[in-house]
Structure formats: C-alpha cells, structure tokens
Amino acid sequence: MKRKHNDDFRFLASIYERFIHPRKSLPWAHYLEDVHIKNMLDIGGGTGRITQNFHPAIPLLFLADFSFPMLRAAHRKRLFLETCCQVEKLPYCDQAFDSIVMVDAFHHLIDQKSALQELLRVMKVDGVFILEEPDIEKWQVKLIALGEKIVGMRSKFFRVDEIEKMINSEIFTLKIERDSVNYFLIIRKLH
C-alpha cells in the first residue's frame, strides 16, 4: 500500500525558524572542501537554514522540498533556486550536482530507497552527498520519533546500516560519522 504524501510542514513554515534555528555548526562541512563545488542541491531543505551557510562561497544553491510554504519562506532570503517536488521524482538531469546535502529529512520521505536512487542519479562523478539523520538507536531520537507519530507525521527513521545496504558499493564510497544524536554519511560517486 502506498503511503499518502501530505505536507507535514505546511502549518509550521511561517514559524519554523523561530523554533528550529539556522545551524552554523556543520560537523561534515569540511568534507566538501576537497571538491570543486559550483552548485549544491539541498533536499528537504525547507527554509534553507542549512544551505544558507554556503552563500556566497557556492555560486548556485538549489533548494528542493515538497512543502511549498517552506520554500516560500526560503524564497524571502533570495539566496536559492527553489523547486517544489518529491524527492522520488527529481526534475533534474543525470549528474547535475557537484554536491548534495540532506539534513534531518530522510525519515520524512515516502519511499526512501527510490529517493536515494534519485539523489545518487543527479550527483556528478567525483561529487559528494552528505546525508545527516537522527540516530534512531539513541533514546532521545526514539522520543522524537514517537512524538512525530503522535502528531500524525509519516516519519520512518532508519538505522545507519539500513541506509548503507541501499547504496551500491561498486559505484559509491561511503564513510559514516557520528555527532551527538545524529549520524551522517559521506557518499562519493566513483563512476
């Protein structure tokens, strides 16, 4: 049975950054330094609270999100090229992006495996994809997951090894790091 795709953030967009502040500390940012980046795609980037850290260093910052109200809030910053879309059906050509980031959004997708394949499709050879997610093995994240279920979000949190199994190790390299209650994967495309 297909899960319904509702916009879990439609009512939060106008107040989102009052409670979820833009992040300045990105423990994985140094992994982007050895890649010549002309463009970056932030998937599920909402208001652009993560991607705005890369302005003006990266000339083209793309922001893709299913929530139109969140993208409208991002648009007010005048930093991004916004696209309202489902991650499982990205409107970009193959190998379009030098770098891709997805922070705290993977668990909100409808079909994580299909979405991951789409993201890897649009990543350039020698590009880098940073996927940061709350670690469901941590008790704090288990409470968040329960809270999201109670309020009716469609969240499905994955253990890091479950995501690792979705990535073809013959085409991509994968490094796993942990930071507090999150883990992040650094995925590079070999060919």
Written overview of the protein:
- This protein has helices at 16-19, 68-75, 112-122, 139-150, 160-164, and strands spanning 39-43, 60-65, 81-84, 97-103, 123-134, 172-179, 182-189.
- The longest helix has 12 residues, at 139-150.
- The protein has 191 residues and is an alpha/beta fold.
- The radius of gyration is 16 Å and the shape is globular.
- Strand 4 (97-103), helix 3 and strand 5 form a beta-alpha-beta unit.
- Strands 3-2-1-4-5-7-6 form a seven-stranded mixed beta sheet.
Low-confidence segments, ≥5 residues, pLDDT <50? none
- Oligomer kind: single chain
The 3D shape can be described as globular
End-to-end separation in angstroms reads 35 Å
Beta-strand content bin? 25-35%
Major sheet: size, sense and barrel closure? 7 strands, mixed
Q: What's the number of extended β-strand segments?
A: 7
Largest sheet, spatial ordering of strands: 3-2-1-4-5-7-6
Rg from C-alpha positions?
16 Å
Q: Overall mean pLDDT score? A: 88
Q: Structural class of the helix and strand makeup?
A: alpha/beta
- Determine the fraction of residues in helical runs and give it as a percent range: 10-25%
